[in-house]
Amino acid sequence: MPSLRKIFYYSFHIQELRSILQWTVWHDPVHRRDEEQEAPSLRECFKYLDATSRSFAAVIKELNHELLVPICIFYLILRGLDTIEDDMTIPLEKKDPLLRNFYNILEKDGWTFDGNGPDEKDRDLLVHFDCVVEEFRKLSAAYKEILKDITKRMGAGMADYAHNAEFNEKGVNSIPDYEQYCHYVAGLVGEGLTRLFVQGGSANPALKQRQDLHESMGQHLQQTNIIRDIREDRDDGRRFWPREVWSKYVDDFDDLFKPENKEKALRCSSEMILIALRRVPDCLFYLAGLREQSVFNFAAIPQSMAIATLELCFRNPDVFQKNVKISKGQACRLMIESSQNLRTLYDTFRTYARIIHKKNDPRDPNFLKISVACGKIEQFIEGIFPSQDPNAIVMANGAKENDDIMMKARGMNSEERAKQRQLDKEARRDVILMAVASIGIMTFIGALMVFMAWMFGARFDLAIEGLRNGSFRPDPQVIKQISEEAASKTMKAGAAKSEL
User: Fold this and answer.
1) Are the CB atoms for 375 and 360 separated by under 8 Å?
2) Measured between alpha carbons, how far is 76 from 139 in angstroms, rounded to an integer?
3) Using CA atoms in the order 155, 160, 166, 171, what is the torsion angle rounded to 10 degrees?
4) How far is residue 484's CA from residue 466's CA, in Å, rounded to a whole number?
5) How far is the C-alpha of 391 from the C-alpha of 403, rounded, in Å?
6) What pLDDT sits at residue 411?
7) What phi, psi does 347 have (nearest 5°)?
8) Which of 235, 334, 457, 484 shows the smallest number of beta carbons within 10 Å?
9) Entry pTM
10) pLDDT tens, residue by residue, 299-358
11) How far apart are CA 268 and CA 376, in angstroms?
12) Which residues are the active-site residues?
């Protein structure tokens, strides 16, 4: 039963309610799991996938059958690694070897871990990690190699940060440090997923060579989460916003949360959002290289939610008071738009970039840079999907030379161009014939209706006379006169019949 608050909210946000109903009723997964064919250990893995992920579980379970299990296991391995890294109750001398050797643990049959604190939210995954190990060992050698490599590098990076006293005490210092941290926790994930996509035949192999692209995919998501979660992280004693940024606006990090520094805090968040926005064109480029629909949905949906979250956080003082999130209705609309095709996805990015540009404050020191970042997003999209249709421009010009130029641009030879012109000519002739036939049929039907009305006694003479007199409505007196005449004729006919 929905709460009164939700009922009240969706009463004034009908479009969001419509999106929820559309996604719930009409969404048809590209692929479906066959649970009857799954081993008990694999079903256990999917149970922990649902328990540990709200946003990724649904899209992972709709992946094609080649990538479904490898990506599910990849997610659970990294979630287990992250659960160890986040737990402050584990002593450093115990945590360090766990993180650095986690990639070897994946080959240890029956391995589990119960050393997390009782309040660690995902501790159950590690307590029953043997099911993940069992399914990992069933993967092909190529997939296992990718997962172990990423796990090894990520675990080493996490261990290095755990030993970094300055990071643990004062947080991130510079923007390069900030991006390096995001690389270890998200950029490596982007690399691993790209290698899995290519190995499974669902992405352009060239994406493996473009480290800048898959790095931006991970950076964009992680930076968005860090921007959105600033209040929650601060309450937990963590600082991920780099000192290089916030020190331009306040003397102490905690000053960002004081009401009297509201405008300074908003300008600081604008610069953080600017850093994330610069990653968007690379993300759009990357998404164009995905070949299979379920993989496209898996990558596109989180990215569209990230740009929507950046727009929600932009110049929003609530970011410093609570954890802000897009509504369920907005999320459903984004999932619908992001799971169709590349053009629809790009339109979503264009929309949010324009909203951010519109909200941009000229008094903000980052105003010009943010405007440029939004402009680059729109420029990239315009280069792939022009807002003006070149074919429509050519037809408007009516120039045969332009026709030839367009057909040459499509790689058509002279014979194909001649055939295309003949087809266009026949198409125009068919349109004219259809129009003439439609007018002829409508004329015939209209004439037939007039004739039938006249046969049944319609008084067109009175209608024509009324029009001549400038009256477009029937005269009540005339209607009364006709009615009396009709009644009189009926009475006379009845009297004549009685005499007979």
Assistant:
1) no
2) 14
3) -20
4) 19
5) 8
6) 58
7) -60, -35
8) 457
9) 0.76
10) 999 999 999 999 999 999 999 999 899 999 999 999 999 999 999 999 999 999 999 999
11) 22
12) 181, 228, 238, 298
